[in-house]
Design goal:
The protein is an alpha/beta fold and 151 residues long. It is built from 6 helices and 5 strands, in the order βααβααβααββ. It has a single domain, classed as Rossmann fold. The N and C termini lie far apart (38 Å).
Amino acid sequence: MTAMTELIAIDSNVLIAFVDGRDKWHSQARVLLAELDTQDREVVFFDCVLNESISVMARRSEERKTTKEFPGLLKRLEQVVPEDTIAWVSEEIRTLYHDILELVKETNGRLNFHDALIALVCREMGIPTVVSFDKDFDEIEWLTRMPKPEA
C-alpha cells in the first residue's frame, strides 16, 4: 500500500512572483516551486488564487506602464496553471461566508477575505500546508506555511 500524496496549496503572492520576473520574490518563488517538484506533494491552485493573481498582475502592469507585457504574463500564468488543473472553490464562499468573516475578525483583518477562504478550504480539503510569503497565515493553527517563518 502506497502513502497518499500530500496536497499543498499555493498562495497568489508565490504564483505572481513565479510568473513575474520583476517581482521582488521571483527568485525565492522559483526555488520553492522547484523544491516542491522534487517532493511527493501535489500542488493545488485554487480559482480564487488565479483571480487575485490576474488582478494584481494587471494592476501592476498598469502602474508600471508595461501593459503591452501583460498578455505575456497571462500566457505564462496559463502555462504554469492550465485551466483543467484549477481547483474551483469560489462556490464554497456561500457555505463558508460566516466562517470567512469570523476568521477575518479573529485576525483583526490581517488575514484578508481571500486568504481566509484559502485557509478554510485547506482545512475542509485536508491540505496541511500553504506556500506563501504572507506571514499572516502563521496565525492559522491548522496550516503550516512554507517557507518556514524566520526564528
